[in-house]
Amino acid sequence: MIKIKGQYNVNIDNKQLTGELDDADIKALLIDLLQLDSSKNFKIDELPVEEAMKSFFLNPEEFLNDE
Length: 67
Hints:
With 67 residues, this protein is of the alpha+beta class. It has one domain. It is built from three helices and two strands.
C-alpha cells in the first residue's frame, strides 16, 4: 500500500481509499490494487454531478488556477 500512496494522489483510512484522479490514473490504480489482492466487496463511489456543480459554485476559487 505504501507504493499506492506514493504513486497516486489518494488517502487511505482504515479500509477506505479516497482520491481525485483522472481516468487514466483511475485505470492504473485499479490494476495496481487488483494485483495486490482481489476482493468480493469492491465498490467505487463517484461524486454526483449535482454535488460537484454545487461545490464549484459555492467556492469556485478552489477549482480555478490563475496560471
